[in-house]
Amino acid sequence: MNEPWQQANLSSWNARAALHMRDATGFYDVDAFLAGKDTLFPIDAAEIGDVRGKRLLHLQCHFGMDTLSLARRGAIVTGLDFSPVAIEGARDLAAKANLPATFVQADVYDARRAVEGSFDIVYTSWGTICWLPDIRAWAQVVAGMLAPGGTFYFADSHPSALVLEERDGVIRPTYGWRTPKDRPDAFTDATSYTGDAFEKPVTDYNWIHPLSDILTGLMEAGLTLEYLREHETLPSKLFPSMVPTGDRMYRLPDGAVPIPLAVSLRAVKRGMIPPRERHP
Fold first, then answer.
1. 233: Cα separation from own chain's centroid
2. Rounded CA gap, 47 and 173, in Å?
């Protein structure tokens, strides 16, 4: 943790994990999960497919609710997150839910050193790559964790939506479409996305990665794209004017110009491809 942004983001996620596990606002509905509720959101729930008996690695797993939902679906799960608070919470949640799972504390870029073996599925979703400065290094990690023939599933906010911000009821371009590695966007918040208030405001550092960089990185790493899908809903209110759809998702209000808010993809590791020349 040599960069100031690294320590700031870790401190932020330790604080968020503690708040989210207490679940005072009910955003995560931990009690319902413990009673058997599946926590995957509609997009990834519909697309992840049959995971029974599959070795599955969940990168940036937070405190493990989705990881454990996948365990309930029959996967042999390992969750990885850089927050020690989140990982401790994930292990406690697994014990309470009586679900088998392995949870590992490590930076996502260190996954290959921290986790043994290869996986049939690598899974990552909702609010993950915005915390990472190097998307091509991330893609290499994903490929390195997969067994030959293994699949990668990804769902997250659409990069074209992330460049926008709503101010005074107007959504307009605000942020650069490709954030330089050494100049992340900084945000200071008094509350988490769950509505829980921090003891004191926290500052986070984020990056926007265009689809071209995400897809090229995965292809350079030896993955073959099976599909790329764009969606008009998100599991959080990226813009204040967004309205609930009734299934824990949000959309733009009636009358708004439709734009893609989320993206999902599935890719397969068909064999190692020699590294290609990388372009900036």
1. 16
2. 30
Residue 174 structure tokens: 């605000």
Two tokens, residue 274: 């020699």
CA distance 19 to 6: 20
Tell which CATH classification among 1.10.10.60, 1.10.3720.10, 1.20.58.100, 3.40.50.150 matches the domain 4-157+177-235+261-269: 3.40.50.150
Contacts of 152 (CB under 8 A, 6+ apart): 121, 122, 123, 142, 143, 146, 218, 223, 265, 266, 267, 268, 269
Report domain extents, the chain: 4-157+177-235+261-269
| Residue 170: HSE in the Cβ half-sphere, 13 Å Cα cutoff | 4
Give, in order, the Cα–Cα distances in Å from 155 to each of 42, 158, 189, 254: 11, 9, 24, 24
Cβ neighbors of 189 (< 8 A, separation 6 or more) are: 198, 201, 202, 204
What does DSSP say about strands 119-125 and 55-59: parallel, antiparallel, or unpaired? parallel
**pTM recorded for the entire structure:** 0.93
Q: What is the pLDDT along the chain (280 residues), one digit of tens a residue?
A: 568 899 999 999 999 999 999 999 999 999 999 999 999 999 999 999 999 999 999 999 999 999 999 999 999 999 999 999 999 999 999 999 999 999 999 999 999 999 999 999 999 999 999 999 999 999 999 999 999 999 999 999 999 999 999 999 999 999 999 999 999 999 999 999 988 899 999 999 999 999 999 999 999 999 999 999 999 999 999 999 999 999 999 999 999 999 999 999 999 998 654 444 444 4
